[in-house]
Design a protein that fits this description.
Strand order of the largest sheet: 4-3-2-5-1-6-8-7
Shape: globular
Number of helices: 14
CATH architecture of the largest domain: 3-Layer(aba) Sandwich
Order of helices and strands: HEHHEHHEEHEHEEEHHEHHEEHEEHEHEE
CATH topology of the largest domain: Dihydrofolate Reductase, subunit A
Radius of gyration: 28 Å
Strand content: 25-35%
Helix content: 25-40%
Structural class: alpha/beta
């Protein structure tokens, strides 16, 4: 029965102009998973051209052969704009640039109006449906280059037929990663490896046809005793604390209005004020969040007094802030803190009006009997946090 089905599928493909094309994700990736700026395009920390530094003649030939065997290129908008800025005037090395310019190109974008790069077509609708249609057309395989967001959006739809990962022996430490945290679990089978003279390794994977397993899944399964031991070790790093988050109101607009130098001076003043006030109220300044802070206190009233002092002191230097406070268990992580208590405070900050201090019901109940007045904001859902949370604004009564 199976050979007959394969024959029918093959003949159907031939009637449409040939075998069904494959979608091949061909990517450059560093050892720490970063895929951003392998060429001279900008990297947020200047760590670009890392792939070019490890390039050799044999791997260039590998990429040339791949491109000439392909029949089309699929790109996301960002990668498309990088390529469109470079390849039309790029050096004509082994015909690679000519082929890049001549090959049909498809860019997935809802906003790109008029693609200027030769032989480019914009896909505005569902990319999964568009790719399925492209696969039925005659021609060589479709190559997806870069375009990390696009690739991750396709992984759960079974449209990527092969992953060609050229792994470079470099740890970049920052930059956009190829595979995102939100990606679905996807099991692959390794079908080919090749190591180049530079130490770069090309790994070719295809989707696995079944969920892999082995006897070790059961042999090394955790028992209830293992889990209790692990939980006991984790609990030693958990403490009850009050978390304060602050955020500068409309920081992006203000920075654009006054210019980089003046904004930098304002941020420096912000950092001085926050450090002084947190120490004055016996808190611990955990870290800066760019345009705000994360601080921890041993009592909610100290966190509240600090938030009021920060609102006034930063207002005097021309910065409006908003604040959010929650009391709960947190995890101590060296110089950082984590856990659900931190997440609740961070999510509550998004609900805070300008120049206001917002707290959870836990903080309100613990601070009852002081000179503080609380106004209800109602119950809200906090993204990523189970249940409904009642929030309050706070002022000095």
């Amino acid at each position: 029965m199976l050979p007959l089905l394969l024959l029918i599928s093959y003949r159907a493909g031939r009637l449409r102009g040939g075998p069904v094309r494959r979608l091949i994700a061909s990517e450059f990736v560093a050892l720490d998973g970063v895929m951003e700026a392998p060429g001279h395009e900008p990297h947020p920390d200047g760590r670009n051209a890392w792939a070019l530094r490890h390039a050799g003649e044999d791997q260039q030939r590998f990429k040339v052969d791949e491109l000439f065997h392909g029949g089309a290129i699929l790109l996301g908008r960002v990668t498309y704009e990088i390529f469109a800025a470079f390849w039309p005037t790029a050096p004509k090395d082994e015909g690679f640039a000519d082929r890049m310019n001549d090959i049909p190109k498809y860019v997935v974008s809802k906003t790109l109006e008029s693609p200027s790069w030769r032989n480019s077509t914009v896909i505005r609708g569902d990319p999964v449906e568009a790719i399925a249609d492209l696969k039925q057309e005659p021609g060589g395989d479709i190559l997806l280059y870069g375009s990390g967001d696009l690739l991750n959006s396709l992984i759960g739809h079974d449209v990527v037929d092969e992953y060609r990962l050229m792994v470079f022996p470099v740890l970049l430490g920052s930059g956009e990663r190829l595979f995102k945290d939100a990606s679905d679990a996807t099991h692959l089978g390794l079908v080919e490896t090749r190591t180049f003279e530079s130490g770069v390794t090309a790994l070719t994977f295809r989707p696995a046809d079944r969920l892999p397993s082995s006897r070790y899944v059961e042999k090394f399964a955790w028992t209830g005793e293992h889990m209790r031991s692990w939980q006991a070790a984790q609990d030693t790093e958990r403490v009850l604390a009050t978390i304060l988050f602050t955020d500068i109101v409309r920081s992006t607009e203000q920075a654009a209005a006054i210019g980089d130098q003046r904004w930098r001076r304002l941020l420096d003043r912000h950092d001085e004020v926050t450090r002084t006030e947190v120490e004055r109220f016996r808190g611990r300044l955990v870290k800066s969040t760019g345009d705000g802070i994360l601080a921890a206190f041993d009592a909610p009233t100290r966190a509240l007094r600090c938030a009021f002092a920060l609102t006034d002191a930063l207002g005097d230097v021309g910065l409006q802030i908003r604040s959010a406070i929650h009391t709960g268990e947190i995890e101590i992580r060296d110089d950082d803190v984590g856990g659900i208590g931190v997440h609740i405070a961070a999510r509550a900050l998004a609900q805070a009006p300008d120049r206001e201090v917002v707290v959870t019901r836990t903080v309100r109940d613990l601070a009852t009997g002081t000179d503080l007045a609380f106004g209800s904001l109602g119950s809200v859902s906090l993204r990523g946090v189970p249940g409904e949370w009642e929030l309050f604004t706070v002022s000095v009564g």
